[in-house]
């Protein structure tokens, strides 16, 4: 498509956009009495209007039924989480039994490491990307130490080539081959939080398996953003948070995926709790653990239903829209933003550079030469919510569910004023 940097052109695209009506389903903060242009859905998604209704429903059931709400609430609490599995499985390309929601992301990564990182003296190394999200770095290092290994030796970081801003798949694959027999686990962020790169999860998973390793993915920036086929790619396990592209609310619950080949097995080490026990017999309070036949075997506690309510509300919308349609819009919207950035770059003196490679979802990371921090502050004051990363990067996520083409055009105008 031949893009144009005009308001008319942008509005035209909005009129043709089948998803444009979903913008009305979200609550936008205001700056100078106007809805902001929101580019930080990769950090915290906007609140869907129906989230409050779902939360209120739980609050009312709690008020009216108290303990009886476990079984007699509008949506009974004891199996509330089951409602999330099928729609969430459709978002990540899995079978419903492979997916569940529990705890928060870093907690889940630790719990999954219990099952899937089983190092011995010969096979103990983990491959991850350099400068992974800090929580993942701390998680991996502490797991390695917990098993008595030295993180310096056990953790192999994938590096970018000198002068390049992204990882090359061929380098990832050859590193996997090089570590070979010593490789116990590959655990990478499917979409890198910093440069927005999407890794070739299918190829990397296959290469990891070839080396005899387990392959897991942190999908914090991938779930609800890009096309995932976890089951077909034969991924072993994955986890993600729900408050970024999944719009479930601050710090909210995490989803996990466990390949069906691991389900129903008693020989897999796992930290266990009563909510992972066979649900038909859960309240018999028997002494011996009998795992649920699905991913719920990894559940520990009875979950926080109030926190699941907005997640369920959001999933209802994802199900209605479907990932195909979402990604179709995402590609055009992100390309339009890229076009606008390049147009602005031609017109102003201070230049910048897009770090994100063409393998991407809906995020562009922009490296600003010169006065980056002041541009960031200027944008925030002028109703454009972006995110700042040291040393000089702003990240822009044009989330297709609630960002418009006119937002991209308007952003270009604001940016141009700030740079000239
Ligand atoms: C956002 C994010 C996290 C956050 O973890 P929490 O446990 O939810 O605080 C972890 N890892 C990655 C890659 C992230 O992007």
TrEMBL record:
A Pfam family of this chain: KYNU_C
Modified residues annotated as N6-(pyridoxal phosphate)lysine in this record: 244
GO MF entries: kynureninase activity
Catalysed conversion reaction: 3-hydroxy-L-kynurenine + H2O = 3-hydroxyanthranilate + L-alanine + H(+); L-kynurenine + H2O = anthranilate + L-alanine + H(+)
Residues that, per the record, bind pyridoxal 5'-phosphate: 105-106, 133-136, 218, 221, 243, 274, 302
Source taxon at top rank: Bacteria
InterPro entries membership: Kynureninase (IPR010111), PyrdxlP-dep_Trfase (IPR015424), PyrdxlP-dep_Trfase_major (IPR015421), PyrdxlP-dep_Trfase_small (IPR015422)
EC number annotated for this UniProt entry: 3.7.1.3
Protein's pathway: Amino-acid degradation; L-kynurenine degradation; L-alanine and anthranilate from L-kynurenine: step 1/1; Cofactor biosynthesis; NAD(+) biosynthesis; quinolinate from L-kynurenine: step 2/3
Cofactor: pyridoxal 5'-phosphate
Keywords: Hydrolase, Pyridine nucleotide biosynthesis, Pyridoxal phosphate
Subunit and partners: Homodimer.
Family named by the database record: Belongs to the kynureninase family.
NCBIfam families found in the cross-reference section: kynureninase
Task of the protein: Catalyzes the cleavage of L-kynurenine (L-Kyn) and L-3-hydroxykynurenine (L-3OHKyn) into anthranilic acid (AA) and 3-hydroxyanthranilic acid (3-OHAA), respectively.
PANTHER family named among the record's database cross-references: KYNURENINASE
Protein name: Kynureninase
Organism name: Zhouia spongiae
Gene name of the encoded protein: kynU
């Amino acid at each position: 498509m031949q893009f144009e940097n005009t308001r008319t052109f942008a509005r035209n695209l909005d009129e043709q956009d089948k998803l444009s009506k979903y913008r009305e389903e979200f609550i936008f903060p205001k700056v100078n009495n106007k809805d902001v242009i929101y580019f930080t859905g990769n950090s915290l998604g906007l609140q869907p209007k129906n989230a409050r209704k779902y939360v209120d429903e739980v609050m009312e059931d709690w008020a009216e039924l108290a303990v009886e709400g476990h079984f007699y609430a509008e949506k009974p609490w004891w199996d509330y989480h089951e409602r999330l599995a099928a729609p969430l499985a459709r978002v990540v390309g899995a079978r419903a039994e492979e997916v569940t929601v529990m705890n928060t992301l870093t907690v889940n990564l630790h719990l999954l490491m219990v099952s899937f990182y089983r190092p011995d003296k010969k096979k103990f190394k983990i491959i991850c990307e350099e400068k992974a999200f800090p929580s993942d770095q701390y998680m991996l290092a502490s797991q390695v130490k917990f098993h008595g290994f030295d993180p310096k030796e056990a953790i192999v970081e994938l590096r970018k080539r000198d002068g390049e801003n992204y990882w090359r798949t061929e380098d990832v694959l050859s590193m996997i081959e090089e570590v070979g027999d010593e490789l116990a686990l590959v655990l990478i962020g499917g979409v890198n939080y910093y440069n927005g790169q999407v890794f070739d999860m299918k190829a990397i998973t296959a290469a990891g398996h070839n080396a005899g390793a387990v392959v897991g993915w942190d999908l914090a920036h991938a779930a609800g953003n890009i096309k995932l086929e976890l089951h077909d790619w034969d991924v072993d396990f994955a986890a993600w948070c729900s408050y970024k592209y999944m719009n479930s609310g601050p710090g909210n619950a995490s989803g996990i995926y466990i390949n069906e080949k691991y389900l129903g097995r008693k020989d897999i080490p796992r930290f266990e709790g009563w909510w992972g026990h066979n649900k038909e017999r859960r309240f018999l309070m028997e002494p011996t653990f009998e795992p649920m036949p699905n991913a719920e075997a990894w559940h520990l506690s009875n979950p926080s239903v109030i926190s699941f309510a907005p997640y369920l509300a959001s999933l209802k919308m994802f199900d209605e829209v479907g990932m195909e349609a979402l990604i179709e819009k995402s590609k055009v919207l992100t390309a339009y933003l890229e076009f606008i950035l390049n147009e602005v770059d031609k017109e102003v003196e201070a230049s910048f550079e897009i770090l994100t490679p063409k393998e991407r979802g809906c995020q562009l990371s922009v490296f600003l030469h010169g006065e980056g921090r002041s541009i960031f502050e200027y944008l925030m004051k002028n109703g454009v919510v972006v995110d700042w990363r040291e040393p000089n990067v702003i990240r822009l996520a044009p989330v297709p569910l609630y960002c418009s083409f006119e937002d991209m055009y308007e952003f270009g105008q604001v940016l141009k004023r700030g740079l000239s």
